[in-house]
Amino acid sequence: MARRYKQGTARTQQAMLPPRVEDYVGRNNAVRAIDAFVDTLDLQALGFQNSSGGLAPGQPAFDPAALLKLYLYSYINRVHSSRRQERTANPF
């Protein structure tokens, strides 16, 4: 069965250190506000398109909500280059 969007690691999934991915982010970090804000939006009403549902060849698309969260996080931190956005989002 094809996936509609690429799936990342769940933030609540247990890991080695720290115990959860959620523990890497501070309680008052702007990321938490961005996450809560984007989760309340109706992305289809805002014009975001659905992917082809995994019917097209190749890798599944990224979830539009995840991309919007990354874009807003980058905008708040004044990161405009997509390469810098990638480095900022994946510090490992």
Summarize the structure in words:
With 92 residues, the protein is mostly helical. The protein has one domain. Helix content is 35%, strand content 0%. It contains three helices and no strands. The chain starts with 29 loop residues before the first helix and ends with a helix. Residues 21-87 form the Transposase InsH N-terminal domain. This is Transposase. InterPro entries: Transposase_InsH_N (IPR008490). It comes from Thiorhodococcus mannitoliphagus.
Present the secondary structure layout:
Layout: H1 30-40, H2 64-76, H3 82-89
Helix pairs in contact: 1-2
Question: Can you tag this structure with a few keywords?
Answer:
mainly alpha; globular; single chain; 92 residues; 3 helices
Mean pLDDT: 80
Number of domains: 1
Largest sheet: none
> If helices are DSSP runs of H or I spanning 4 or more residues, what is the number of helices?
3
The total count of strands amounts to 0
How far apart the termini lie comes to 31 Å
**Which ranges are low-confidence, i.e. pLDDT below 50, for 5 or more consecutive residues?**
none
* CA-based gyration radius: 15 Å
Shape: globular
Strand composition percent: under 5%
Structural class: mainly alpha
Q: SSE order in H/E notation? A: HHH
Measured as a percent range, the helix fraction is: 25-40%
Protein name: Transposase
InterPro entries: Transposase_InsH_N (IPR008490)
Organism: Thiorhodococcus mannitoliphagus
Domain Transposase InsH N-terminal: 21-87
